[in-house]
Specification:
mainly alpha; two-stranded antiparallel sheet; two-stranded parallel ribbon; 6 strands; 5% strand; Adenylosuccinate lyase; lyase activity
């Protein structure tokens, strides 16, 4: 299980031993209620089961030392709390009917938390995107200054990705919130399909169309892959913050609280530890994808090679993503932004970021693209080498100035040109 450092209490409770066995008991009782509706189990016996069936985790674990089988240990422990009606516990079902359906039930609980986490993050990112919609900054490609953009557009891009993450999540959540009560090899030989339908309806699950002794594991693999995609989104966002907080850039900074320490040796340090934490945990979740894919291949109608792995990856992935979503949402809520530094960084390349606009002005003046490119590029090289002003070099070149006016250069060197469609992008995203 995930270490407590990366657990939130609500998600940790879902994957606790107590809640797991309670989910098993909920499935068992739902099966008995279904049998009762079909006339198999008497009302009096069902009432006793509903009232008295219980367990202690310690007793189950002690019994498992004898049985070497956790479900048998569970059913025998529950049976000890009952009288003759105990014969109906686990009637007509196999272990995985209980375990897999309970997994669907537990994952449904986990999904409720993750869904709320995603909504909160989306809301915060939307608010920040709108706040910084017109806050100009340099856009970078390959880590190198490219052309002006806005911090709001950067965040709007994140907002759109979060929307895609939510869509993928809802699809995967629907796929994983399923149950199966179909017996030893999925033939319903000892239990009618109506029981499965009634059990799933009671637990808020969907009956899987067809199963073997287990639910098909491509469902679980898709789910883990989807959570890994969300984790990768968070990692991408966190990486941007880490870059923008570098000393040479320092356009944003994670909130640094009073009394917080950045280094045991260097009092001046303020490090993006939250975003680095997100990056590290994303690596763990992405590693679980391989395991989930390997779990799809089971022998014949079922083996248990997937079981041990899922005891780790299902709780750990949901717990880690819950923690990551909560933490990154807080990072975004408290993020310190330095608009003045963003403006200052626009100018550190001496106007090179306007080279494309100059080239296009020359094309509009009648030159071919190749001619324009070859006139402008040597000037950009001179700026890089000599750290001189790009516009001044252009103005001193008679060949270039035969085609351009000062008004052309004023327009080409105006960063507002690059921002003229920002509102349209926001409108298209519904960020109004």
């Amino acid at each position: 299980m995930v270490i407590k450092r990366y657990q939130r209490p609500e998600m940790a409770h879902i994957w606790s031993e107590q809640n797991k066995y309670q989910a098993w008991l909920d499935v068992e009782i739902a099966v008995d209620r279904a049998w009762n509706k079909l006339g198999k189990i008497p009302d009096t016996d069902l009432a006793k089961i509903e009232q008295n069936a219980c367990f202690e985790v310690a007793d189950i674990l002690k019994m498992e030392q004898i049985t070497k089988h956790d479900v048998v240990a569970f059913t025998r422990t529950v049976s000890k709390s009952l009288g003759p009606e105990k014969k109906w516990i686990h009637f007509g079902v196999t272990s995985t009917d209980v375990v897999d359906t309970a997994y669907g039930y537990l994952l449904k609980q986990a999904n409720d938390l993750l869904r709320n986490d995603l909504r909160k993050l989306k809301q915060v990112v939307a608010q920040k995107a709108k706040k910084y919609q017109d806050t100009v900054m340099i856009g970078r490609t390959h880590g190198v200054h490219a052309e002006p953009t806005t911090f709001g557009l950067v965040l709007a891009n994140w907002y759109a990705e979060i929307n895609r993450d939510i869509d993928r999540f809802e699809h995967a959540a629907t796929g994983i919130e399923v149950g199966k009560i179909s017996g030893a090899v999925g033939t319903f030989a000892n239990i009618p399909l109506e029981v499965e339908s009634l059990v799933c309806a009671e637990l808020g699950l969907t009956p899987q169309d067809i199963s073997t002794q287990v639910l098909p594991r491509d469902l679980h693999a898709e789910y883990i892959m989807t959570l890994a995609l969300i984790a990768s989104s968070l990692e991408r966002f966190a990486l941007e913050i880490r870059h923008l907080q570098r000393t040479e850039v320092r356009e944003v900074e994670e909130y640094f609280a009073a009394g917080q320490k950045g280094s045991s040796a260097m009092p001046h340090k303020r490090n993006p530890i939250g975003s680095e934490n997100i990056t590290g945990l994303a690596r763990v979740i992405k590693g679980h994808v391989f395991t989930a894919l390997e779990d799809i291949q089971l022998w014949h109608e079922r083996d248990i090679s997937h079981s041990s792995a899922e005891r780790i990856i299902l709780p750990d992935t949901t717990e880690l993503l819950d923690y990551m979503l909560q933490r990154f949402t807080k990072i975004m809520q408290e993020l310190t932004v330095f608009p003045d530094k963003m403006v200052a960084d626009l100018n550190i390349t001496h106007g090179l970021i306007y080279s494309q606009r100059v080239m296009l002005k020359l094309v509009e003046a009648g030159l071919s693209r190749e001619q324009a490119y070859d006139l402008v590029q040597p000037k950009t090289a001179q700026v890089w080498e000599q750290q001189v002003d790009f516009r001044q070099l252009l103005e001193s070149d008679n060949t270039i100035m035969q085609h351009l006016t000062q008004a052309d250069l004023d327009d080409a060197f105006d960063y507002q040109w690059h921002l003229r469609n920002v509102q349209s992008v926001f409108d298209r995203l519904g960020l109004i």
